[in-house]
Write a structure and sequence with these properties.
Two copies of one chain form a homodimer. By secondary structure, chain A is α+β, with helices and mostly antiparallel strands. The first copy, chain A, has a domain of 139 residues: NADH Oxidase, CATH 3.40.109.
């Protein structure tokens, strides 16, 4: 039922995964056009999400002034000004506001009967708008992180580099970019062409991070 | 500085992203070997993480008994018994316990001077073990979600299907699999061969989820 894949395609995919490294030095002459950024974000947004609510939002910071403003907020890490753009990955705490549109689109595409789509939209609006705050935030953060990972891989496949940054002042960021209470900053992702390769890193042995059928106390 | 990519490789990567769908009907005769699961998890773990702390953990549920036990916890969704395995993605709230090993590995691989590695390990242990609980949890959830997305794409590239599930009783899951206070269940990912294609879904127009340099109030 699933499309056949050739060994070469598998390897080419694995190469993307293996070649992605966190890059901190960017060629500041490289400019990725907004059209290409939109293409990358469109592919990132093919990620799955909670009830297809797509709680991710992208705040693209590509103006020199805004990048400079971001610099002290991001602990003066030069990549935020040297990269072509910084994509702030946000979680939308009020993603249910789009439920009607999401299910209307599904009905219009012929993926769902209009009546059912209406029911689903109502149920999702009701369910997501009444979630406890902590749970709503966690769902938004998870959806946003899924899109973030896909974004970094799509960028690498297209020959660009990225680095996910958690080290920035969240309060100052929220204030500077007027996120209000609706949007949670999840991470910053500078994107551009590497001027210097990212350094290689190791991973814990897979046995140390995997449990089989039960969580063993030795971990 | 970055490896050259051919147009074919880019397309083959995009095909993987585009062809991944949430699959809910699995061929229950397909068994993915533990060796192959480990290979998939090893690639998933190439995801980036906060200070390379790798807060993801995988609880692989592949025994028929455990899958049956999971069924009522997962709202009787048949995919948890029909898929070859269910990979519960966990966040480790005490990932700093591995800081020494992570930096020792980096030094052993020659990626970092031993003295520096020791300093980094101490700093990470100190920093991550003293984080406010909410922040520690969010970091663990983000890292785990990045690995989860990469896992789903790697699975697809290798011809398998998955579905990320957020709909399960977290408290009952924690009790049944004895997660204690250390591990946060982030999502369940059944993995196997589709018996029936996942249904297509739509996404919001990219303009509706993207801001340029400032968050516009119209969104």
């Amino acid at each position: 039922m699933t499309p056949a894949v050739t060994a070469e395609q598998v390897q080419s995919f694995i190469d993307v995964v293996q070649s992605r490294r966190s890059v901190r030095k960017y060629d500041s002459d490289t400019k990725i056009s907004r059209d290409e950024l939109k293409e990358i974000l469109t592919l990132a947004s093919k990620a799955p999400s909670s009830s297809n609510m797509q709680h991710w939002r992208y705040l693209v910071i590509d103006s020199p002034e805004r990048k400079q403003e971001l610099l002290p907020i991001a602990n003066s890490q030069q990549q935020v000004v040297e990269a072509s753009a910084v994509i702030a990955i946000l979680g939308d705490l009020e993603g249910w506001r789009n439920a009607d549109q999401i299910y209307r689109q599904a009905a219009e595409a012929g993926y769902m009967a209009p009546d059912l789509a209406k029911q689903f939209a109502e149920r999702s609006t009701q369910m997501y708008s009444s979630l406890p705050k902590d749970r709503a935030r966690e769902i938004a953060v998870i959806d946003a992180s899924l899109a973030a990972m896909q974004l970094m891989l799509v960028a690498r496949a297209k020959g660009y580099d990225t680095v996910p940054m958690g080290g920035f002042d969240r309060e100052k960021f929220k204030a500077a970019f007027e996120l209000g209470d609706r949007y949670v900053p999840v991470m910053l992702i500078p994107i551009g062409k590497a001027a210097q390769e990212g350094h290689p890193t190791t991973r814990l042995p897979i046995e140390d991070v995997t449990f089989w059928n039960e969580v063993s106390p030795s971990h």
